[in-house]
Design goal:
The chain is of the alpha/beta class. It has a domain of about 280 residues: Metal-dependent hydrolases (TIM Barrel, Alpha-Beta Barrel). Strands 1, 2, 3, 4, 5, 14, 15 and 16 form an eight-stranded mixed β-sheet that branches.
């Protein structure tokens, strides 16, 4: 085993270890498991960080800690796949932005975000207290931006947060990164993918300097190999219907595991996406023609795609407000998406698309206990998380926002509290 493979195996082993040896029983809730009908007045038993029982007749051990959720709603923790959580802090301060490489080269496939993740980011507690327990944190910039990772929003070390490194290769259908024309985007993508195949088949000649010039670096080609084998999703930010069809052609040509991201006009090609089994990540509130690529944007994008059989994933595309995900899902429901489909679109579907569904995305025995107890319907504006559990542990109710609220809740005459 190579040193890198050994490191990854160690990180995964650490990330999957239970947070604490304890038993917790969440009782009395309406439980939405995602994989079955809602269970009224049900109990979810959690032991050593994983769900061990779900139902209305669960036997609760006498030493179990009890959480009374009567009158509340229990769902899996939400999974947000449209942020740079852990990679950014203050947008205007470059020293806090670790999600993009600089330079003119638009091919950055080897860029891996894992080493840039900051477990102490103030944005993590803010958003997990709004029900987001897991995130795909992604690089941005360039034609191929690099490799995203799935993380849990708890843990004081990256190793303790990491769920799946190199979970996806992120790319963008941006003519500005390829020469100014849409045809240049597809030309450059095909060139890079062809050269990645060539590098795979002629690596010895390449290492000896006996191969032709290639369109990217050795590290980039190595990073693209799982994309070529279909083992790593190729996530492309693209909005215009014709551009989406172009990506479908490339995906078929190279046998890529394609995922469409943003997809403002995806509803216009829903049948083609469904036939290809290509998921779409979208923001339900994207409905304005903010660019020529989004002239066909509409509120019921998610509902139309789901009706055609397209796997839909909802996101907010907000890092500082990743917790808006529940509200985004509520707006998708308002625009016609079935409620259960909306819940699946922020839990089990992203878990499946990014390779973590064996442990995440639904409330079933054996799965990681990432759970949220809501005061009411999680997609209603007046509902809020009452308890948030990650890997079987309740997360503390503190965040920078709440600390500031308490600090300035009562203002007294004289010197402000910050100066005392």
């Amino acid at each position: 085993m190579s040193a890198r493979a050994l490191l990854v195996a160690t990180l995964l082993a650490l990330s999957s270890a239970p947070a604490a040896a304890q038993t917790v029983a969440i009782t009395g809730a309406t439980v939405h498991t995602v994989v079955g009908e809602p269970l009224e007045n049900a109990t979810v038993l959690v032991t050593d960080g994983r769900v061990t029982a779900v139902g209305t007749d669960v036997e609760i051990p006498t030493d179990a800690e009890r959480i009374d959720a009567t009158g509340h709603v229990l769902t899996p923790g939400l999974i947000d796949v449209g942020s740079t959580l852990g990679l950014s802090e203050v947008g205007a301060v470059s020293d806090t932005r670790d999600y993009a490489l600089g330079g003119d080269d638009p091919i950055r496939a080897a860029f891996d975000v894992v080493d840039g993740i900051n477990p102490n980011s103030s944005l993590i507690p803010v958003n997990r207290l709004r029900g987001v327990t897991t995130a795909l944190t992604s690089p941005t910039g360039g034609l191929i931006a690099g490799q995203a990772a799935v993380i849990d929003l708890a843990g004081d070390r990256v190793e303790r947060m990491l769920v799946r490194p190199r979970a996806a290769m992120m790319a963008s259908f941006d003519a500005g990164d390829a020469g100014g024309a849409r045809g240049a985007v597809t030309l450059r993508l095909r060139e890079v993918l062809d050269d990645a195949r060539f590098w795979r088949d002629n690596r010895g000649a390449f290492d000896r300097g006996a191969a032709r010039s290639l369109a990217a670096s050795r590290l980039d080609f190595a990073a693209l190999q799982p994309v070529l084998t279909g083992d790593m999703p190729f996530v492309v930010t693209v909005d215009r219907a014709s551009d989406i069809l172009a990506m479908l052609r490339i995906a078929a040509e190279y046998e890529l595991d394609l995922v469409i991201r943003s997809g403002a006009e995806a509803w216009m090609v829903a049948d083609e996406l469904a036939a290809a089994g290509v998921p779409v990540i979208l923001r339900p509130l994207t409905n304005s023609p903010s660019s020529f690529a989004r002239l066909g944007a509409r509120f019921d994008n998610a509902a139309r795609l789901a009706a055609a059989g397209v796997p839909v994933i909802l996101t907010s595309f907000e890092t500082h407000r990743s917790g808006d995900l529940s509200w985004q899902a509520g707006n998708a429901v308002r625009a016609g998406l079935d409620w259960a489909q909306a819940l699946r679109a922020v839990t089990l579907t992203p878990a499946r698309v990014f390779g973590v569904a064996a442990d995440y995305g639904s409330i079933e025995p054996g799965k990681v206990a990432n759970l949220v107890v809501w005061s009411g319907d999680p997609f209603e504006l007046d509902s809020r998380p009452v308890h948030v559990m990650i890997r079987g542990e309740l997360v503390p109710p503190e965040s920078r926002q709440r600390d500031l609220l308490e600090r300035y809740r009562v203002l007294e005459p004289g010197v402000p509290p910050a100066y005392r």
